[in-house]
Structure formats: structure tokens, C-alpha cells
Design goal:
The complex is a heterodimer of chains A (258) and B (370).
Chain A: E1 5-14, E2 17-27, E3 32-37, H1 43-51, E4 58-63, E5 66-67, H2 73-80, E6 83-86, H3 98-109, H4 114-127, H5 144-155, E7 162-166, H6 174-191, E8 194-198, H7 202-208, E9 211-216, E10 219-224, H8 225-230, H9 234-241, H10 243-257
Parallel strand pairs in A: 3-8, 3-9, 6-7, 7-8
Antiparallel strand pairs in A: 1-2, 1-4, 4-5, 9-10
Chain B: E1 4-7, E2 13-20, H1 25-37, E3 42-46, E4 50-53, H2 55-70, E5 74-78, H3 85-94, H4 109-140, H5 150-160, H6 165-187, H7 195-234, H8 237-243, H9 248-286, H10 291-301, H11 306-311, H12 313-330, H13 336-368
Helix pairs in contact in B: 1-2, 4-9, 5-9, 6-7, 6-9, 7-9, 7-10, 7-12, 7-13, 9-12, 12-13
The chains are: A alpha/beta (258), B alpha/beta (370).
């Protein structure tokens, strides 16, 4: 299977500080790919590199077989239309209503009648399970979970093949976080979306991710969660076998059995 | 394959060919719109040559078919329907019985008028409590030096005063040059060019110096105050301060107000000096008045109170600017647009207040012959 994204020997350097020292990984179509790592290990930088928001110091990023590091701005914009991205804080436009937020990328990309646009907004809200009467609300009037859902609705607005989620469940209560996991799985299963998510939530990781990339010491270790858990790198052991990690491990075991 | 949607001559067959991506939605929708405007009695959707559908266009097609069926059109699909139709059917069933999105209907004029009055009243009320809180804080914080936040005041004096010296000097110099130039031109026919000196010196010292400084400071620092406090408000920093038992008026408002009360007179002195220098330079070259004569003329033109009449207004203007800026900053709620709006309001209102106060001073000085 041809990978959807493939990073080869990515090096990212800020001055003397090397964040990524030869990172290579593949994201396959239709999978949910998790990225974990300690604070400062360069998760966000890696995400930005994949998104084409940052050119790596060296190395190549291929999306659907085309190297985006060698593209000009026009071509890159074309590729970016195939992405949906949600940011950690939601990054909703505070001066626009939920409906306007979701309609914005569509209205910018194409010429559609008001009515068709409103109908597409309704579709996206239904897809992420938001009540339709939230459409007229402003982001400041929404709960944390609704902000994240709206962000996903906006990210889905142009029918992307790839969805990037940065800490999608951070700051959500366990019930909201669980329903968010369900939503992500549902989108992947029904729409065959490929999802790349940065997360620290071990539950989310265990429940949704097919494969996990761990960023340690500027390198990356990619494996299924079961494989990662058995890895004996000290940081990984601490991460998954600490007090919090142990609670989640049974779920991983259970999934492997199923 | 390129997307195509073509309606047959008899308007009874819509042929869709190729992949239908989200980007093809406008073309699909325009075809469907034509059908909706005058629904045919029977319609065949020919999907035999159609490729993959994205969800967006699937939804538009799905919706249009439902609408056509509702108007009595007999719709039949040839070929395999888009794979997302099953998902969309389920979505509609799950979301059934939901209240539709509320149409943002406009209020009638009476409600609108009432809301305006209410918000205006609330704004006044807020300004009043703000003024009260600031006064109380100011009155009670003199007891100890620590409570006065000297380092904070010094920083603000530096930012609003010292850093404003270049721009204020330049503006004051240029304005007095302009005033002197026009004055000399108008007075020449009467042979009274020498009075240009009176015009410039009295004008600069009494009004122009302090007024221009105030306008510049309102634009620089009034807006900065509003934006700083507004962002702090958006980040919940103000709530954080209060939750730690600290008084935001003591920490944020009072130092800024005191800083401008201190900085404005100092800046005014600089502006006055530069204004006089501008007048001196221009009269020297335009009406050939040598420096010593300019000085003599200046001394006879300027009364004992002329300089003070300008300077005494400076702290008042400074307080007005700082209070307006901090008040508007604290009123920011919810959105970044609000931040921009209130920053603008802060600048416009502080300039208005400064000019209004200046008019009151003019009347006052006239009455007491200052």
C-alpha cells in the first residue's frame, strides 16, 4: 500500500538545538496514527513539518507521492486543501459564529449559493454530532467539547483525505473525551479518513490509534501500541508503565485479544 | 476522470460522469438548482459513468433528491448510488427531531432601540464603578510605598513618556513651523510680521504643545493600555489576579494612570521647547528676525502664566487618557473583534475627552483671567 504521508530523514534544527535528527515514518491510508513524546520532544514541530507549515532543515516530506518540501506556494496550497487540521485550543475564529466558522473554508474555495452553503454547514454539524441550534452561537458561548467538535467540523468542511488533530482530547472531561474518540473512529470507519493525532491521552491512544510514533532523543520509534508497550527504551517504559500507563495497559491487552 | 453533470433536452435525465469531489460542488449544485426551480414529473439520475463521490456533493445530491421527491417528482437512480448515501440516511435518522438552526431574525425597531439604551446605560454604569474603584484604590494605597507599585509606574513612565520623546518632539516642531509660516504670511500685509512670534509662542505654550502631546499619547499609549488589558482579560489573567486576592485596580490600573499623570507634563515641556525652537528657526529665516530679537520678543509676548496655563492641563489629560484606555481594556469580552473595537473606542474617546476638557479649561481660564 502506498503511504499517504512519508517522511524521510527529517532533520529540524533551531540554532544549535537539534529537535529531529533523522526522523523517518510512513502514514498509511485509512489508519489512525498517534504521535507521542515528552514536552519539547518536537511533536508540534513534526506536525507542522507534515502540514507544510514549516520546511525541515533537511529531509523530504511526501504527501501522496509528491515531495512538498520542493513545492512552490501555489502547489502547496493545493495540497493543503486535502488536509483538515484542528489546533490544540480549537483556533475557532472568535468573531464568527459556529456556522460561519464552518462555512468559511467552503465559501473561500468555491462559489456556492447561500442556501447550499447553509446546507453543507448542517451536514458538517450533523457529522460531528453538534446540535443544529449551536450554529448561531459564538465560540465564547460554547463548552470545551463543543469547541473541539466545531473545530473538527471546520476541518472536515472541504472533505479532506487527511485529518490532523493536535491534542484533541486535552482539557475534556472523560465523557466528552470518550465521545470524541468514538467520533474519530466513526469518521475513519465511515469516511475512510486518515487521521494523524498528537496526544498525551493514554486512553485515546489505546482506544483509537492503529500505530503510534514515539519521539525520543530526536529519533522516532514507530510500532503498533502493543509493540511500543513492550519496547524497553527507558522513557517509553516510564511513559507506559508509570502509574497512569498501567491503568490503560489492560485495555491494550484486551484489544490485542479481540 | 473529469466531473460532468448534464441534463438531457427533455429535462428528464441527469447524467453524472466522473469523480465528484468537493471542488465540483458548485457545478453539481447549479445543475440541481435548475431542476429544483421547475421540477419535472419524472427524473432519472444516471450514475452509470459516475466515479467516487465526496461527502459534501453526496449530501447536496441527497438533499436535492429528497426535495424533488417532496414536490412529487418520480426520481429513479440508474447505476450504483454514491457510497455515502447509506451514511447520510443514517445521519438524517439520528438527527431527526432536532430543532433546526435558528434563523437569526432581526429585532423590530423598538426592541433594537431598547437594547441600545440598555447597553448604553450599562456602559455608563461600568464607567462609574470603574471610576469609583480607581478612586478608592488611589485613596487607600498611599499608606505604603510598596502598594504604590513604584517599579511598575517607572516602567510605564519609560514606555509612555521617554519612548514618546522623539515623535512628540518632531510633531511639535513641525506644527509650530506650520503655524509660524501661515501666521507670517497673513500678518505681512499689515506689516505686523513681528507678531508671528507672539502667535507661535502663545499658541504653542497655551494650547498646541499640550494638545498635540495628548493626541499623540492617546494614540500611542491609550491604545496600548486598552490592548494590553484586553488581552489579559481574554486570557483570564484578570480573574487569575483576583482569585489570588490581588486587586487589579491596584496592580494594573493605578500604575498606568499615575504613570501618564507623571509623563504627560514632562512630555509637554519637551513639546513646548521643540515648538518654540521651531518658531525660532522659521522666524529667523522667513522674516529675518535674529535670535536675540526673537528672545526679547518672546519675553514680552509671554506672560507669567502662559507656560503654566498649558502645563497645568497636562496631568488632567494624562489621567483622562489612561482611565479611558484601561476602562475599555477591562470591558473586552469573549472575542478578538471586541478587542479591536474597544481599542479603537479607547483612542477616539480619549481624544474627544481631551479636547472637551481643553474647552472647559479655556472657559475656566477666561473667567479667572489666568
Amino acid at each position: 500500500m502506498q503511504p499517504l504521508i512519508s517522511l524521510r530523514d527529517i532533520v529540524n534544527r533551531f540554532g544549535a538545538q537539534v529537535v529531529h535528527d533523522g526522523v523517518s515514518l510512513d502514514v498509511l491510508p485509512g489508519e489512525i496514527f498517534g504521535i507521542v513524546g515528552g514536552s519539547g520532544s518536537g511533536k508540534s514541530v513534526l506536525l507542522k513539518t507534515m502540514l507544510g507549515l514549516r520546511r525541515p532543515t533537511s529531509g523530504t516530506v511526501e504527501v501522496e507521492g509528491r515531495d512538498i518540501t520542493a513545492m512552490n506556494d501555489e502547489e502547496l496550497r493545493e495540497v493543503k486543501r486535502r488536509y483538515g487540521v484542528t489546533f490544540q485550543q480549537g483556533a475557532l475564529f472568535t468573531s464568527l459564529t459556529v456556522a460561519e466558522n464552518v462555512a468559511l473554508p467552503v465559501a473561500e474555495a468555491m462559489d456556492l449559493e447561500e442556501e447550499a452553503l447553509a446546507s453543507l454547514v448542517e451536514l458538517r454539524l450533523r457529522m460531528v454530532g453538534l446540535p443544529l441550534d449551536a450554529a448561531g452561537k459564538y465560540p465564547a458561548q460554547l463548552s470545551g467539547g463543543m469547541v473541539k467538535r466545531t473545530a473538527v467540523a471546520r476541518a472536515l468542511a472541504l472533505d479532506p483525505v487527511l485529518l490532523f488533530l493536535d491534542e484533541p482530547t486535552a482539557g475534556l472531561d472523560p465523557i466528552a473525551a470518550e465521545s470524541f474518540d468514538t467520533l474519530v473512529l466513526y469518521l475513519r470507519d465511515t469516511l475512510h479518513l486518515t487521521v494523524v493525532m498528537v496526544t498525551h491521552d493514554l486512553d485515546t491512544l489505546a482506544r483509537t490509534c492503529d500505530r503510534v510514533a514515539v519521539l525520543v532523543d530526536g529519533k522516532v520509534i514507530v510500532d503498533t501500541l502493543e509493540g511500543i508497550v513492550r519496547n524497553d527504551h527507558p522513557w517509553i517504559r516510564q511513559y507506559f508503565h508509570g502509574a497512569r500507563g498501567r491503568e490503560v495497559l489492560p485495555a491494550v491487552e484486551e484489544r490485542r485479544g479481540a | 476522470m473529469e466531473f460532468q453533470a448534464s441534463l438531457s433536452e427533455a429535462r428528464d435525465r441527469l447524467r453524472i460522469a466522473g469523480d465528484c469531489r468537493m471542488g465540483d460542488a458548485p457545478r453539481l449544485e447549479s445543475g440541481l438548482d435548475e431542476l429544483r426551480r421547475a421540477p419535472p414529473p419524472a427524473l432519472v439520475i444516471d450514475l452509470t459513468a459516475a466515479g467516487a463521490f465526496d461527502i459534501g456533493p453526496s449530501w447536496l445530491l441527497h438533499r436535492a433528491l429528497a426535495q424533488l421527491r417532496a414536490t412529487g417528482t418520480d426520481v429513479r437512480i440508474e447505476g450504483t448510488p454514491p457510497e455515502h448515501f447509506a451514511y447520510l440516511d443514517r445521519l438524517m435518522r439520528e438527527g431527526a427531531g432536532q430543532p433546526a438552526a435558528e434563523a437569526g431574525g432581526g429585532d423590530n425597531w423598538l426592541v433594537h432601540f431598547g437594547k441600545r439604551i440598555e447597553s448604553r446605560w450599562f456602559s455608563w454604569y461600568e464607567a462609574l464603578t470603574f471610576g469609583g474603584e480607581t478612586l478608592v484604590t488611589a485613596a487607600t494605597r498611599w499608606t505604603s510605598l510598596r502598594r504604590l507599585r513604584i517599579p511598575s509606574i517607572v516602567r510605564h513612565v519609560y514606555e509612555t513618556g521617554v519612548q514618546a520623546i522623539p515623535v512628540v518632539s518632531l510633531i511639535a516642531f513641525l506644527i509650530s513651523v506650520i503655524a509660524a509660516y501661515i501666521g507670517a504670511q497673513q500678518l505681512r500685509p499689515f506689516g505686523a510680521e513681528i507678531f508671528t512670534v507672539d502667535l507661535v509662542t502663545i499658541g504653542v505654550l497655551r494650547e498646541l504643545g499640550v494638545l498635540l502631546t495628548a493626541v499623540m499619547v492617546a494614540g500611542r499609549s491609550g491604545s496600548a493600555y486598552a490592548a494590553e488589558l484586553g488581552v489579559m482579560k481574554l486570557n483570564d489573567e484578570i480573574d487569575a489576579l483576583e482569585s489570588m486576592g490581588m486587586n487589579p485596580y491596584e496592580l494594573l490600573v493605578l500604575p498606568r494612570v499615575l504613570a501618564l499623570v507623571i509623563a504627560m507634563p514632562l512630555l509637554t515641556v519637551v513639546a513646548d521647547a521643540m515648538g518654540l525652537a521651531g518658531g525660532a528657526v522659521l522666524t529667523r529665516y522667513l522674516i529675518d528676525l535674529p535670535w536675540p530679537q526673537f528672545i526679547t520678543r518672546l519675553q514680552s509676548a509671554v506672560g507669567e502664566t502662559t507656560f503654566w496655563a498649558g502645563l497645568v492641563k497636562a496631568p488632567v489629560f494624562g489621567a483622562l487618557i489612561a482611565l479611558t484606555g484601561t476602562l475599555r481594556g477591562l470591558q473586552v469580552r469573549e472575542s478578538s473583534r471586541e478587542l479591536g473595537r474597544l481599542t479603537t473606542v479607547a483612542v477616539v474617546q480619549s481624544i474627544f475627552l481631551v479636547i472637551f476638557a481643553d474647552a472647559l479649561f479655556a472657559i475656566l481660564f477666561l473667567e479667572i483671567d489666568f
